[in-house]
Design goal:
Two copies of one chain form a homodimer. With about 220 residues, chain A is α/β, with parallel strands linked by helices. The structure holds a DNA duplex (24 and 24 nucleotides).
DNA sequence: TAGATTGTTAATCGATTAACAATC
DNA sequence: TAGATTGTTAATCGATTAACAATC
């Protein structure tokens, strides 16, 4: 930390990773008409410690009130803001295979401000096909489209063999973030965020835990 | 730990979570014909500390040799075994919507021993449709199918509203593990493994990091 | 043998939990 | 006011990193 700069406490990714789950529970409580909740009550609901809940929230300043607890609606709004859900983000999908099309058709992202703007593929058979009202574009149009349409996020639903090259092209044209479903590590320049969804890794973890349980219980 | 029981050191999920990534790098090295690698070399490749690599591997016993390093092929095999990839696992998909069908068509799981055996949906329009050579079955057949076909893993690609009920039905019929894409927490009986893939949570983390970077750099 | 590199212990760091004073 | 519950400090726990003796 340089002398003279205002110290900004960095929030750990462990905390960030828990925020969406808090948001989900608070949204459900809100829908049920619950007005206030204590860290103790929430901890029982979510199966985490009340201490952790209070520590997590206090990373962002005091959201609660002593003797009362937390206002559900207010807390829900604030966590949404922290996660940037009060803004909209334009996104495109690269890769119009099964996964790419499935993600394009998944409507729920819209509700959180993630707007589906385009989808690309290098397979001429897929170009021109319709995914939720948007025609699949050829890869040649990728750069222009990203630059001209204020695209923040690119979803990579392509094989690992082309993912690194495509990510570089996106980076050079002002993308802010990559949601990476390709099974490869992307090394992006500073300031370009990467979030990986490695499905096969997740499945392997499941496999480990199945086998561990069977071994420990001699089945 | 009870007196008299042989102490089995529990491997932390943090370690397990890193194994698939080791496996991926080792597989690539293997394909390139690399025979041996030191923790130092691997650490540079993977951008983690050599210390962590050695600690991780030593959770499972000594895979290396002083002065030599690790044999790539051997290490690859051993990590595969730890992850249970030397066995096969039959899986079904519940939910034949966009995501369910996409996962059914994803061939790469087969290579790791995960065998696609059935797919179910309660929408009569989808029942009978073909997903990679398998006809979508109605939900009424779920229980019988799971029991009769030695199904280990159920992939939940259904809305949260029905996920808990379906998970309970699966649990009662001998499923070992649930790969949960529904946006809800499942509380399963001990011995049934759950691995969540909450796509919207992942997207929110990405959103947080975009906004954090923009704020810190006053864009 | 000398050099390299693991396996393993010790030190550090960060995250979680506990405790309690502040305060609504 | 008395009771409840946060915000926050302190204690604990676990994970990561550093160091180095063992050994190939």
């Amino acid at each position: 930390m340089e002398v003279g700069t205002l110290e900004v406490k960095e929030i750990s990714q462990a905390v960030i990773g828990r925020l969406p789950r808090y948001l989900r529970y608070l949204g459900e409580l809100k829908d049920e008409g619950v007005e206030r909740i204590s860290s103790q009550e929430l901890s029982e609901l979510m199966q985490v410690t009340a201490s952790q809940i209070r520590q997590d929230f206090n990373n962002f300043g005091g959201f609660g009130q002593q003797g009362y607890g937390y206002n559900v609606e207010y807390l829900y709004q604030e966590i949404g803001k922290i996660l940037g859900l009060d803004r909209t983000h334009n996104f495109i999908i690269v890769g119009a295979g099964n996964l790419g099309r499935a993600l394009g058709n998944y409507m729920n992202f819209e509700r959180r401000g993630f707007l589906f703007r385009g989808i690309f593929d290098n397979n001429p058979q897929l170009v021109g096909q319709n995914v939720r009202g948007i025609q699949v574009m050829p890869m040649e149009q990728l750069e222009d489209f990203v630059r001209d349409n204020d695209i923040d996020i690119a979803v990579l639903a392509i094989p690992k063999s082309s993912a690194v090259e495509v990510a570089d092209r996106l980076a050079q044209n002002g993308i802010r973030a990559i949601w990476n479903f390709a099974h490869v590590d992307l090394h992006m320049p500073e300031g370009i965020q990467v979030e990986n969804v490695h499905l096969s890794d997740s499945l392997m973890k499941l496999s480990y835990n199945i086998n561990r349980y069977m071994t420990e219980n001699e089945m």
